Structures are given as structure tokens and as C-alpha cells.
Amino acid sequence: MDIIKGLGEQSPLYVKNCWYVAAWCNEIDIHQMYAITIINKPVLIYRKENGELTAMADQCCHRHMPLSNGRLEGDDVRCMYHGLKFNAQGRCVEVPTMKLSGEDVPDNFLVPTYPVAEKHDWVWVWLGDPDKADEALIPATTGPDDPDWFMHKGHLDYDANYLLINDNLSDLGHIAYTHQNSFAGGKSDAYFNQPRVQMIDRGIRITRWNTNSPRRAYQKSSDDFFDQYMTYDFIVPGVLMMFQGMYKAGGAEACDFGTPTTEMEPDTASFTSQSVTPMTDGTSRYFFSWGPRMVEHKDNPDIVEGMWALANKAFIEDKETIETQQLNIQLRTGAPMVSIQDDRGPNMFRKMIDKMIAEEA
Ligand code: FES
Ligand SMILES: [Fe+2]
């Protein structure tokens, strides 16, 4: 297994026929340029006068200057190296120094454009075969615009290959130690139960009960321990949608470590959507939102800040862990790796990614 895609000449890299999260919708205003590299492709996204997004290669077809270093002129973008101007369809419409414009500009003066969509507060870009860019394939994430949840949102940039972040997200057993001072609340053994892992369309579904989890600071209950239920889908290329609830201690056994029954009301519940976007082989952007149910927030407005502070602490712990792991892997010592039961999620997800890459090849 290539632990990091791109290491080694034969290592296939990325799934192309999928939607990658490029930005939060509100990060791109009318007539504002937004640049991001996704799977080693420089991408420029901007909003036209009518609010519609356009996405194209952020690489002038003349000498490969980033167009995002240029300027928007109405709905067109001008490269500020030698002045070529492109319309929102990526077609060069002006070469000032040659006094060419419109139809007189050669047909091969163009940059590729990409399907782009806005859904659930995220901007999604498709870098594969445009004929296969089906918006129905965009995972049904929950963003801050969802009226049932009170979400905060953010992103973090990693100096790490996306697969290491995906591994981390498909194996929440790491909470016991990586997050012993945040999510685990100093009680690692709450996270020793093995999850249920199953294949679903374009991803995996993981369900786990973490028994006797300590009460979180933002919970109002007088109980000290709860059974925490987590269920999430993790979809290619790395999109996580998770519900979690804190149930009375004993809740896990009451439903045989399965789905909580309708009579089981959680003391508190939250939802999080997260997405890993590979930028280059060694860098990734991690987008996330997190928050409690809107009804809970109304009773306890501090709950959002409490959850958010805890999640952010944990996200930094993940980042530090994975970036350190990446550095050690890059030494390529050739030492073998062993497997433990917790690797089922990461292994299944990697198999799915590898299969999709192979099918595209
Ligand atoms: S590089 Fe863009 S105009 Fe020359
Ligand atoms: Fe984590």
C-alpha cells in the first residue's frame, strides 16, 4: 500500500470523477477571485455579476501565469503579465499587444473550465470528465444554512497528504489517545469499543458507541458519564457527515450497541460535516462545520461555543499528529507497518479510492 499517494513512480494519485470542496460559499463575493490548488491543478473560481460561479484553470495559456494574479474586468479576467483577457468560458478574447480581439484570437488560446456547483454552503468543483459531473453525486452535507442545526464553520490547511487525513477520519478509535485531553476527557478507555463499518455507495458507514464518556463542560446534566453514539458516512474523496449524541449511561447496552431507539432522547446531540480536499501531494485543506441542534441552542446558547472550542482543540491535535506522521513517512525507511482492528475503516476506504482510481485509468 502506498501510504501517501504520489510517493513512488507507480503510485496512482487521485479520483478525478468526484466533487471536491473548494471553498465556503461566502468566501467568494461578486467579482472576487478565489484561487485554490486541487489535486495538483491550480483552480480559479469567481462570481460573475449575476452571482453565478465560474471555475477555470488558474493558469494563463500564454506563459502559465496564475490568472488569479490578474484582475477581473466585468465577467472577464485579464492576465496581468502580458494582458491576455479571457471570458468566463475560458476563451481568450483579447491579445492587446497583437491588437487581436474576439473572433480574431486563435482558437487554441483558451484555458479549461470546470463544472462548479454550490450546495449546502460549499462550493464544489469537478475536475474529471465534465460529462460525468452529476450534481446528484454531491454528498448531502449539512452546513450552517440548515435550520435544524446551529453550526460554526472553518477550515485548516495541512502539510500532509489527504489519505493520512482520511485515515484519521475513518478511524475514530484514535480519539482515545490523540484526543485524550479534548474529546476523550482523560478517559481513553471510553473509546475502546470497536465500531461497525460497512460499505455504502461511494463510501463507508461507521457507527460506534463510546461507553462511559465523561460529561462535556457544555452539558447541563448532573450525570458524570454518558454513552456517546456516533454514526457517520464517509464519502469519496473524503467527505464526512456525522451525527453524535450523548445518551444516559447504559444506553449502548439498552439498544445492543445498535441504533438508539426512538424513546432514547440524547442529553445533547450535534452534527458535523467535514471535507478533505487534496491540494498537492503533500498539502490538503480540511473544511469543517460543527454545532448542536437548533432547539438545544435556544435553551443553552453557550453550547455552541463550548462544542466549537472543544472541536477546534481536537482539530489542532489531529493536524499536529498527522503532520508529524507525514514527516516520518517521508523518510521512507522501508520499515513494515502492522495492522490493528481499528484499521478496518481506513483500509475499506482506501480500497474504494484505489478501485475508483483504477476504473478511471
Ligand atoms: S502569461 Fe498571461 S499574458 Fe503572458
Ligand atoms: Fe481526530
Question: Can you give a write-up of this model?
Answer:
With 361 residues, the chain is α+β, with helices and mostly antiparallel strands. The chain folds into two domains: 117 residues, Rieske [2Fe-2S] iron-sulphur domain (Rieske Iron-sulfur Protein), CATH 2.102.10.10; 208 residues, Naphthalene 1,2-dioxygenase Alpha Subunit, Chain A, domain 1 (Alpha-Beta Complex), CATH 3.90.380. The protein is built from six helices and 19 strands. The strands form four sheets. A seven-stranded antiparallel sheet has the order 13-19-18-17-16-15-14. The protein has a five-stranded antiparallel sheet with strand order 5-6-7-8-9, with no helix packed on it. A hairpin with a 2-residue loop joins strand 5 and strand 6. The longest helix has 29 residues. The radius of gyration is 23 Å and the shape is elongated. The mean pLDDT is 94. The site of FE2/S2 (inorganic) cluster has 9 residues, from loops.
Key features of this structure:
single chain; 361 residues; alpha+beta; Rieske Iron-sulfur Protein; Naphthalene 1,2-dioxygenase Alpha Subunit, Chain A, domain 1; 2 domains; seven-stranded antiparallel sheet; five-stranded antiparallel sheet; 6 helices; elongated; binds FE2/S2 (inorganic) cluster; binds fe (ii) ion
